[in-house]
Hints:
Blueprint: H1 11-21, H2 27-32, H3 39-47, H4 53-67, H5 70-85, H6 96-111, H7 118-130, H8 145-150
Organism: Cystobacter ferrugineus
GO molecular function: hydrolase activity
Protein name: NUDIX hydrolase
Amino acid sequence: MSDGHAWQGNWKVxxxxxxxxxxxxxxxxxxxxxxxxxxHMLAEELGEEDVAGVQVLDGLLAEAEQRKQVTRFVRxxxxxxxxxxxxxxxxxxxxxxxxxTVAQSFAMWTSFTPETHKERVRQARAALRTTPPPPGxxxxxxxxxxxxxxxxxxxx
Length: 156
């Protein structure tokens, strides 16, 4: 976890230097090679002491905006948040503990979502509450069927 070193100097240049050192031409390509890996783990892989997960998130959003793929970015964040918070997949029973974890995941996902897509995320959350995925379900990437059904590729 970053202890503040991540914000020293030009962190964007530093982040992209790390990406290039690993043979990737974009942060998106780096992240796509690691589907469903939580953002903080991507940051740790790029530099345990000097890269923060929020920097990875910011870079991925910027690239998504440039490529007009923000909806895919939003699905990608959902997959990464669920992977982090529900590593065993969707809970079989929504007891108090698992309901809290799902709510926490949804809150994190929403907070990481750009304003242009927040209403669509609210609708997707409602759909997941009304018709939950099967127990143990884990999306493996942003292009999996359920995330694509919830948030189809139509840019806002």
